[in-house]
Write a structure and sequence with these properties.
The complex is a heterodimer.
Chain A: H1 2-13, H2 15-18, H3 22-36, E1 42-52, E2 58-68, E3 76-83, E4 91-95, E5 103-108, E6 113-117, H4 133-136, E7 144-154, E8 157-166, E9 173-181, E10 187-194, E11 199-211, E12 215-225, E13 231-241, H5 252-257
Antiparallel strand pairs in A: 1-2, 1-13, 2-3, 3-4, 4-5, 5-6, 7-8, 8-9, 9-10, 10-11, 11-12, 12-13
Chain B: H1 2-7, H2 10-23, E1 29-41, E2 53-67, E3 72-83, E4 91-102, E5 106-113, E6 146-155, E7 158-166, E8 192-193, E9 202-212, E10 215-225, E11 230-235, E12 241-247, E13 249-261, E14 264-275, E15 277-291, E16 300-310, E17 322-331, E18 339-347, E19 353-363, E20 367-377, E21 393-401
Parallel strand pairs in B: 8-12
Antiparallel strand pairs in B: 1-2, 1-21, 2-3, 3-4, 4-5, 5-6, 6-7, 7-9, 9-10, 10-13, 11-12, 13-14, 14-15, 15-16, 16-17, 17-18, 18-19, 19-20, 20-21
Classes of the chains: A alpha+beta, B mainly beta.
């Protein structure tokens, strides 16, 4: 019923909206989701990863992530690895960009060395998990083109279902199917198709929490690889916003200090 | 350990301890590693006194504490190795004993630290502040902690690091029982200095570093006692011939340059050094190209090529005067973090070859198993690497992290 009333409303007051192509509608949804998530400034959080292979064997990762919102460009991210213990103290600094490759530096504490690394490995696994670097990097509107498909109820929520196509030719995906809830414009599920357009992975977002009365963050990300039977769970905790982080907390000097 | 403690400037130790004790509520965390290592040599020793292999144990705990919302931190990392064979290799060091105060446009770093400058893989020309802990590994990647006062000015135009370096650290060399040494033992007790203040000379350095889009740049100058000694013939107390390290006072200007272009990393290091014989220029440059997702797998394969040059030619005390390094780096991107680095150093003048294979993987959450294989071939007597030809070896290390 709600969908019908929405359509009625749209036809009465926004006749232009009905003339939208599916591509325009998809882009409009992505822009709205992006608009609603603007202005958070800086954030930090802890992340636990649980990796499971097809036999159910588990291994664990523990890391901390700091983010800085950058106006007009992608976010800056500092990731500090706590576990496994042999990589403790390793840190990764990423300047993501709306277009073009990201800038990345890795700090290796045993050599006290900062290494510039190629961000072309975005399709590669992040710490041996089922998450690729591109799955956890900053979500920018410009990184995809879009096509709205349909409205659908998912897990009891009215959702938009759309397809998005990575702009970067080095992405590991041809397309992704995305479920976004209509109430808060939060991604609820993403299905990934590999370079051969075969079903690859499903990502589900669970336990959303709202911060600063505006910004939604899911406590749990569940990624399942349909081709290998492996899965990875991310559990977020200690989410904090607007702690006054600046560009100085995201440079090579702070990368060396991070532990 | 006693020798180590006396070598470390007690005043710095005190200053850092006081700063830490006075400002920090003592609530940091301990971590670290304990590693056992076995070295197996393919051939019998070339020099009398040496053994067939060795076992050793290394402990490196680390205490870290940060406070003042991360603006201040304290790090303490002592190191101790016990070697079954070589008394010189059984040694201790303070790798880090540092207090850092960071502000918006500067950072003050005080104490014993490790600082790395450089971009290339096959050798590190520009990197000069820390002394090489050569008994640890002949590849020279291990460093001794260096006492320093380091003020970093962090500005729009980059970072300017100013260093004062009190307390020179002598290079460590394998002892008479140790493998991987020249035919003559290096007698560190007889070390001679150009500076009348010997190891108490205060050295100085500065470095500007910045990144501009795909470029990373570092320009540095060092004035002080060379970390690399010249090895001169001498005799020990018993009248036996030995090598005596001589530490000259040098000026060294260094440039490190790196450009990233997609899957390509282009690298160059260039130095000019005066004060150690004739002024000379040395360079190393090349690339690392990464094949991401090799053959539809999740594995990455890196291809490395670097060329080294030294205008002292064969008179250069290091083996990289006209040499090529070819390497492949296999990164499996698996749960166990498996990595293999296979490299070949090729002397273009005399056709000497050094094969180097390094592999490692994690076991569970807290263990890591690594192996190194090194083989030296066809180095002429005039080459510094000739001495290692009887020392082809396999090193296996199992480390427990905590």
């Amino acid at each position: 019923m709600r969908t019908i009333s929405l359509v009625l409303l749209l036809s009465l007051f926004m006749p232009i909206a009905l003339a939208e192509t599916p591509e325009e509608r998809g882009l409009a949804i992505a822009r709205e989701a992006d608009r609603r998530d603007q202005g958070w400034g800086d954030s930090s959080a802890s992340m636990a990863m649980i990796l499971r292979n097809s036999q159910g064997d588990e291994s664990h990762r523990q890391l901390r992530v700091r983010n800085l919102e950058v106006e007009g460009d992608g976010d800056k991210t500092l990731t500090i690895f706590d576990e496994p213990l042999d990589v403790k103290g390793t840190a990764l600094l990423t300047f993501s960009h709306k277009t073009g490759p990201d800038d990345q530096w890795l700090y290796l504490p045993s050599l006290a060395r900062v290494k510039r690394i190629s961000s072309r490995n975005k399709s590669g696994p992040f710490m041996g998990s089922e998450f690729a670097y591109e799955d956890i990097s900053s979500d920018e509107v410009e990184k995809y083109t879009y096509r709205y498909l349909r409205d659908e109820v998912y897990e009891g929520m009215d959702c938009f279902v759309m397809e998005r196509y990575p702009v970067d030719p080095h992405s590991g995906y041809t397309r992704q199917l995305v479920w976004i809830d209509q109430a808060e414009y939060r991604p609820q599920q993403v299905i990934f198709y590999d370079r051969k357009d075969a079903l690859l992975k499903t990502l589900r977002f669970r336990d959303y929490r709202q911060y600063l009365d505006q910004y939604w963050r899911a406590d749990r990300f569940l990624m399942e690889n349909h081709q290998t039977g492996k899965s990875t769970e991310l559990h977020w905790s200690d989410q904090q916003f607007r702690q006054g982080l600046t560009d100085r907390d995201f440079d090579q000097n702070s990368l060396r200090r991070a532990r | 350990m006693a020798g180590v403690v006396t070598r470390v400037k007690a005043t710095w130790l005190m200053a850092v301890m006081l700063a830490w004790g006075g400002l920090a509520p003592a609530q940091g965390q301990w971590s670290g590693q304990l590693a056992t290592e076995a070295r197996l040599f393919a051939a019998s020793p070339a020099h009398p006194g040496q053994g067939a292999g060795s076992l050793s144990l290394a402990l490196q705990p680390e205490y870290y504490h940060s406070w003042d919302e991360g603006r201040q931190s304290f790090l303490f990392a002592p190191f101790l190795r016990l070697d079954s064979r070589d008394a010189e290799r059984s040694h201790g060091d303070i790798r880090e004993l540092t207090w850092i105060r960071a502000s918006r446009d500067w950072e003050l770093r005080l104490g014993i630290r490790k600082v790395f400058w450089g971009v290339t893989e096959s050798q590190h020309l520009v990197d000069i502040l820390n002394q090489t802990d050569l008994v640890e590994n002949p590849d020279g990647e291990d460093k001794l902690g260096q006492p320093m006062v380091n003020l970093a000015l962090v500005r729009e135009w980059g970072t300017l690091d100013l260093f004062l370096l009190p307390g020179f650290r002598e290079r460590t060399f394998p002892g008479i029982e140790g493998r991987l040494r020249p035919a003559l033992v290096v007698d560190t007790e007889q070390a001679v200095y150009e500076s009348a203040r010997e190891e108490r000379r205060i050295d100085a350095a500065l470095r500007w570093s910045h990144y501009i889009g795909p470029w990373d740049l570092g320009l540095s100058h060092f004035h002080g006692t060379s970390r690399e000694p010249r090895l001169l013939p001498g005799v020990d107390g018993d009248g036996k011939p030995v090598l005596v390290p001589r530490y000259d006072v040098i000026h060294q200007t260094g440039l490190a340059l790196q450009r990233i272009a997609g899957d390509w990393l282009w690298k160059l290091e260039l130095i000019r050094r005066s004060g150690q014989g004739d002024t000379f220029t040395a360079a190393v440059g090349g690339f690392e190209y990464t094949l991401v997702g090799l053959r539809e797998s999740v594995m990455d394969l890196g291809l490395l090529l670097e060329y080294s040059f030294d205008d002292r030619k064969d008179a250069a005390p290091n083996p990289f005067e006209n040499d090529l390094f070819l390497g492949t780096r296999w990164v499996f991107n698996d749960v166990d973090g498996t990595e293999i680095l296979a490299g070949l150093f090729l002397d273009l003048d005399h056709h000497g070859r050094l094969y180097n294979l390094e592999a490692s993987r994690r076991i569970g959450n807290a263990w890591r198993l690594s192996a190194e294989l090194r083989v030296w071939q066809a180095f002429p007597v005039t080459d510094p690497l000739h001495a290692f030809q009887a020392d082809d070896h396999l090193l296996v290390e199992l480390a427990r992290y905590f």
